[in-house]
Amino acid sequence: MFNNAEFLRNVRVQLTPRRLGFTCGLTIGLILISELLIWSGTAPTKYSPSDYDRVLEFGKASFNLLFFAQVTLLIAMAPSMIGGNMVQERLRNTLIFQQMTLLSPHEVLLGKMFGSTAICYILSALIMPFAIVSGLVARISLDSMIGVYLVLFLG
User: Fold this and answer.
1) Alpha-carbon distance 108 to 138, whole Å?
2) Which residues, at least 6 apart from 85, have a Cβ–Cβ distance to it below 8 Å?
3) Residues with Cβ < 8 Å from 74, sequence gap 6 or more?
4) Are 146 and 50 in contact (CB under 8 A)?
5) Which is nearest to 143 in space by CA: 153, 127, 132, 134?
6) What is the mean pLDDT of the segment spanning 121-148?
7) Vertex 35: Cα angle to 19 and 30 (nearest 5)
8) pLDDT tens-digit profile of 79-130?
């Protein structure tokens, strides 16, 4: 896969150092802001039960938000980026040149599939440590989290 010309071309175009730095910085900033908002939103009120555990509620809400962000990245954004990449190639009339290369259609598709969505995979990996810590704070068992992530990444 890493010597696939289409994959390397897509990664080189998608992951320029400035774009990658900006996107990762923006993602970490949004995570921190959302965590602060969740923390303030889980503050106990006058009508909260006496056994209200703010840290547990914060962990649950935070894990739900971060896992939903990962699901959105990998299930909604990645396929749309692949389709957008194919449409761009067709509009620029460069798709025919890719069909004339020595790569098989399968190799071109795999290169586009993993190359154009590399930023989604990187951002999902960036969110994962925050989600795992939130899951542990929420007292979600490690086995459950491993199962959920296996289904997300393999399914």
Assistant:
1) 43
2) 10, 112, 116
3) 120, 121, 124, 152, 153
4) no
5) 132
6) 94
7) 20
8) 898 888 888 888 888 766 666 677 777 887 788 888 888 899 999 999 999 9
